[in-house]
Amino acid sequence: MGRVVVDVMPKPEILDPQGKAVAGALPRLGFAQFTSVRQGKRFELEVDGEVTPEVLAAALAAAETVLSNPVIEDVVRVAVAPEVVGSTEPTA
């Protein structure tokens, strides 16, 4: 089974209130080195078999039409998900 990761972020000109709230909380929690935060979305799409270029193209098309709102969001990454070392996912 293959897995594709799609990351979607708000466009730079769009207000990100969740990112602003996190940015305000970080210094209070001892993480003063971060100056701004933008919060986005991550989708993991599973496919039967390997992730091929055709699967990646279909994932990009889905990301641009269904997974994101192109008026306020950018699709910033569509990639094969890395293998998780020590994963405890059940096998079928």
Q: Any descriptors?
A:
2 helices, three-stranded antiparallel sheet, PurS-like_sf, 92 residues, Mth169, Chain: A
Description:
- The protein has 92 residues and is α+β, with helices and mostly antiparallel strands.
- The chain has a single domain, classed as Phosphoribosylformylglycinamidine synthase subunit PurS (Mth169, Chain: A).
- It is built from 2 helices and 3 strands.
- The chain has helices spanning 17-28, 53-67, and strands spanning 2-10, 41-47, 73-80.
- A 3-stranded antiparallel beta sheet has the order 2-1-3, with helices on one face.
- The protein is flat, with a radius of gyration of 16 Å.
- The mean pLDDT is 92.
Which quaternary structure do these chains form?
single chain
SS element count, helices: 2
Q: What is the overall silhouette? A: flat
Helix/strand order, N-terminal first? EHEHE
* Number of separate structural domains: 1
* CATH C-level class: Alpha Beta
Q: Count of DSSP E strands?
A: 3
| Mean pLDDT over all positions | 92
* Spatial strand order of the main sheet: 2-1-3
Uncertain residue segments: none
Describe the main β-sheet briefly.
Answer: 3 strands, antiparallel
Output the radius of gyration. Answer: 16 Å
Distance between the termini: 10 Å
CATH fold description: Mth169, Chain: A
Tell me the CATH superfamily: Phosphoribosylformylglycinamidine synthase subunit PurS
CATH architecture title: 2-Layer Sandwich
Report helical residue fraction.
25-40%
Pathway: Purine metabolism; IMP biosynthesis via de novo pathway; 5-amino-1-(5-phospho-D-ribosyl)imidazole from N(2)-formyl-N(1)-(5-phospho-D-ribosyl)glycinamide: step 1/2
EC number: 6.3.5.3
Family: Belongs to the PurS family.
Organism: Pengzhenrongella frigida
